[in-house]
Specification:
heterodimer, A: 427 residues, B: 516 residues, Rossmann fold, 6-stranded mixed β-sheet, 25% strand
Chain lengths: 427, 516
């Protein structure tokens, strides 16, 4: 390959046919589009996922399905019905996640304020926030060759840590908020370090131990919520005390409309993503993470402690997941947390990291996409089955994880250097 | 079979891998193809074996032009190939491997083990290649596995020409000798052999004629009587000195002292067994031995990657037995690992990132935990110039470099920081002649600046060329320490564990003879 490059560049000036030596931008771009490189595979994965989602929407809708029974008598019923269904379903998702056209009309007529117009976006950002953190938690570990399935558990501990500081301290917000966030990171980090330390000292595989620790964390949460220290003083069901107002993350757009939930955590999330990018590309710690992730034996031979890198990386990953928990615990108007607060953000972080290819910027973008899918699906139910968002997420990741499949379906060309598949070593 | 290539050319885009190759292999001839890595040898063989289609030119078998659209055609035409990396199914028996793809069956798809066994026996008797048809391949030594490959290639319907692609790369010295004998007897019985190699001594000893290719072109046709220096110069395209110029060693104080070192593997087996060895400043101690006698583990224990069960490692007079590798590296231990791809480089990293792999935490490459990209780049640019690393830029990935240049990256990493001791394990493995010459001369320079060098090599030629003192390892023990003028046979006997006392006596006798 290298020699090929050298020769090609060396010979270009003497090349008699200019079109060969200087292909036009349009031509290069066209070639790029039909190549199975990582960007185009991602784009095509999204399109394919929406196509499959469309088929399943048709299959799951009784009325449209029955119109296929007399397809040959009146094909327009089936085809028109299918199109309407797909169009309206995806439109509903869009309106719930980005911009609602009804609200826009009302806004133009003066019946709605600007805040109403922003509500879908606010919901998308709110849903994306924990995913940024858990996506980074999984993605960072990926870079060290570790598969961190434990973001869910790490997030639960982070949530408890932030919660406890959030309701027990009585200090001004300027101190309280950073302290509570820090507590979340520390709690998640300590819990996250456990599989790393186990791997470093005993060789226990982090996938197995972090899966098991998720269960421990989930059950620990149930127990912790029932303790007198954490359990709500005013409510009887399994819910915690609310954090003090001084620990609550300020809503960013509350001044426009109090129903806009998006809060400071999204800003923290983006800042942390930038921080992780800096860590990976500029710091010695990141250099070590990448070295160990690519080639553990060579790193060890160069004097790096592979075990310590595993432990610290998992600790850092846990801290990132802990921040997701902190964002949930300190979220606006939470009124205390319960077992449902954490949903599956930790597990969704795995898909976010995969879609973002363990790259901080990619993780932010894919967290926003998944946040939008979730917000859209929640607002579009029951007209659109709420499972559509999960289904789309799963299908997208299926294609991302199997670039050869995308390449085969769409008959793309193999790019230079082959297909890129993200994988954790030793799994 | 007579095989003739006329103007065979293969282009990949604008890159010409093979350019107008003319070549004739006569029946019963061993025809060596000599060339550096990337010279176009493999492309040529792949065209011959039907894996690649030529862009231009003809292949003639016994004067008739042929076209191969796949290996099946080549096999049908009587060409067999033994690949550098064996294509064997480990858990299968020898007979099953040999019949793979053309199974002996009886009736409707029922395998006939007896016929398969018989076929193996027949071929191995005809060519004098002893093989047990029922042995499980993965349990066999590498040399015997290769014999299975040869028998497999010879079992084609009418194999008359055998292509051997770098067949000696994976073999021990004894196995190499055996293989060369096998090749000779195959040729004597009429089989033509195309022998691809970059090891000059082997080519010289076995080939009937030598074709040298460089950058895809035939640059020389030499008789086997040509000197190795002639062959090397033709390969590289400039004069090459195979003799390493060096003055007598001036050993100083002990730099690396290994005392009673024992390393035990997971099964409790003593791989290194109470080993004693001292390397002084300003000398190269060559550690000779058949691979797998504890060299790997010894090197890893000296670096600190393996914890010894007992014994000590002293570096520069201080007890380093319990120091972590980072500390030893910091204190001036250089280390060239034997397995370059696994332990030496991170192929997904750039050249620059690889060059600072064991110094990334030191100034000026990083300050307060932040990597200084400019300093790293400057160091890389300097090293690329000083060590003649052929790369397009410091930010090129090491994966796209040739083996020799990857090795130079490691050499650059180890040689551009202050060192007291250097452990060099197989420093020229898989490296072409030009790079080997360079690495050898750097090792001598290293010695002359006062470093104590422990050279671990499975190639006796390399040990002889460089070492000031030779220690022979067998079964995890040093079974003899001899002068570099000790004859090969003596060292050879020590390497296979022949009575150590006898060998030492022979050595003494030899030395006495020298004194007289």
């Amino acid at each position: 390959m290298t020699t090929e490059n050298t020769t090609a560049t060396a010979e270009q000036p003497e090349s008699p046919e200019p079109p060969e030596s200087k292909p036009s931008f349009a031509r290069l771009f066209g070639r790029y589009l039909i190549e199975a490189n990582s960007v185009m595979v991602t784009v095509y994965s999204l399109l394919l996922a929406f196509a499959i989602g469309a088929v399943l929407l048709i299959v799951s809708d009784e009325q449209v399905r029955s119109s296929y029974g007399y397809f040959f008598a009146r094909p327009s019923d089936a085809l028109g019905g299918s199109w309407n269904l797909i169009y309206s379903s995806y439109m509903d998702l869009f309106q719930g996640a980005i911009l609602n056209f009804n609200t826009l009309e009302r806004f133009q007529a003066g019946n709605a304020d600007f805040g109403d117009l922003l509500r879908p976006l606010s919901e998308t950002l709110t849903n994306a926030t924990p995913l940024i953190f858990t996506g980074l938690a999984v993605g960072l570990a990926f870079r060290a060759g570790l598969f961190n399935i434990g973001a869910q558990g790490q997030m639960i501990f982070g949530m408890l840590g932030a919660l406890v500081i959030g309701f027990s301290l009585n200090v001004p917000a300027i101190v309280h908020i950073p302290l509570a966030i820090l507590a979340g990171a520390v709690a998640g980090g300590l819990f996250g370090a456990v599989p790393g330390v186990l791997k470093a000292t005993t060789g226990a595989h982090e996938v197995i131990s972090s899966i098991m620790l998720n269960n421990i964390a989930a059950l620990f949460l149930v127990w912790a919520l029932s303790t007198k220290f954490i359990h709500s003083e005013t409510r009887s069901e399994l819910v915690s005390k609310p954090v003090r107002d001084s620990a609550e993350l300020p809503a960013l757009l509350g001044w426009l409309n109090p129903s806009l939930r998006v809060n400071l955590a999204i800003v923290v999330g983006v800042a942390v993503a930038v921080g992780v990018w800096w860590l990976l590309t500029k710091s010695t710690f990141g250099y070590r993470i990448r070295a160990v992730g690519f080639n553990g034996p060579a790193s060890a031979t160069a004097g790096m402690s592979v075990g310590r890198t595993y432990a610290t990386t998992m600790g850092a990953a846990g801290a990132l997941a802990g921040l997701a928990g902190a964002a949930l615990a300190l979220g606006t108007g939470s009124g205390g947390v319960n077992t449902a607060t954490v949903l599956e953000y930790g597990f969704d972080g795995i898909t976010v990291a995969l879609l973002g290819r363990a790259n901080p910027a990619g993780i932010v973008v894919s967290a926003l996409l998944f946040g939008a899918l979730k917000a859209g699906a929640l607002s579009a139910q029951p007209d659109v089955p709420v499972d559509i968002s999960t289904l789309l997420q799963a299908t997208i990741v299926l294609f991302i994880a199997a670039p050869a499949l995308v390449k085969a379906i769409l008959r793309l060309r193999t790019p230079r250097g082959g297909l890129v598949t993200l994988e954790a070593k030793g799994w | 079979m007579q095989l003739e290539l006329r103007g065979l050319t293969k282009k990949f885009g604008s890159f010409t891998a093979d350019d107008d190759i003319d070549l004739t292999v006569e029946p019963g001839q061993i025809h060596a193809i000599l060339g550096e890595n990337g010279a176009g040898k493999s492309t040529l063989m792949n065209m011959l074996y039907g894996i690649l289609r030529p862009t231009a030119g003809q292949i003639l078998v016994d004067g008739e032009p042929v076209e191969f659209s796949g290996p099946g055609d080549a096999i049908a035409a009587g060409i067999g190939m033994v690949h550098q990396h064996f294509k064997l199914v480990g858990p299968f028996s020898v007979a099953d491997n040999v019949q793979l793809g053309r199974e002996h069956t009886r009736g409707a798809g029922v395998l006939s083990i007896r016929d398969a066994r018989e076929a193996v026996r027949e071929v191995s008797e005809r060519y004098g290649l002893a093989l047990d048809p029922d042995a499980i391949v993965e349990n066999l030594p590498v040399g015997v596995q290769q014999r299975v490959e040869i028998v497999k290639a010879l079992s084609g319907p009418k194999t008359e020409l055998l292509i051997l692609d770098e067949p000696t790369a994976v073999l021990t010295p004894a196995e190499i000798t055996e293989l060369l004998e096998i090749m000779r007897s195959l040729a004597d019985s009429g089989t033509s052999i195309l022998f691809i190699s970059h090891k000059l001594k082997e080519v010289q000893s076995v080939a009937d004629t030598v074709t040298v290719i460089r950058r895809g072109k035939v640059v020389a046709e030499l008789p086997p009587t040509a000197s190795t220096a002639e062959m090397a110069s033709a390969m590289v395209g400039r004069a090459i000195s195979l003799e390493v110029d060096k003055t007598a060693a001036e050993p100083g104080e002990p730099r690396l002292e290994i005392e009673g070192l024992t390393v035990v593997d997971d099964q409790g087996f003593k791989i290194v067994d109470g080993l004693d060895l001292t390397v002084h400043s300003g000398e190269i101690v060559g550690l000779a031995g058949v691979e797998g006698n504890g060299q790997t583990e010894l090197a890893r224990a000296v670096l600190g990657l393996m914890k010894p069960a007992s014994g000590r490692v002293r570096l520069d007079g201080r007890d380093a037995t319990h120091e972590p590798p980072a500390e030893r590296i910091e204190q001036g231990l250089g280390y060239i690992p034997e397995d370059r791809a696994r332990d030496g480089v991170i192929t997904e990293f750039t050249v620059a990132e690889n060059i600072i792999l064991n110094q990334y935490r030191d100034r000026p490459y990083s300050k307060r935990g932040v990597v200084d990209a400019a300093a790293v780049r400057k160091r890389a640019v300097d090293s690329i110039a000083e060590f003649d690393i052929r790369t397009q830029s410091p930010t090129e990935l090491v994966a796209s470099l040739s083996g020799g240049n990857q090795q130079k990256v490691i050499i650059a990493r180890e040689f551009s920081r202050p060192r007291r001791v250097l452990v060099a394990a197989q420093p020229t493995r898989g490296v072409d002649v030009g790079a080997t010459e360079f690495i050898h001369s750097r090792l001598i320079t290293e010695r002359d600046t006062g470093t104590g060098v422990l050279l671990i090599s499975s190639e006796l030629d390399e040990i002889y060329a460089l070492a000031d003192r030779i220690a022979v390892i067998y079964n995890g023990k040093i079974v003899g320490e001899v002068d570099p003028d000790t004859p090969r046979e003596v060292i050879g006997r020590l390497m296979v564990g022949a009575d150590a006392d006898a060998a030492t006596e022979a050595d003494h006798a030899e030395n006495d003879g020298g004194d007289r």
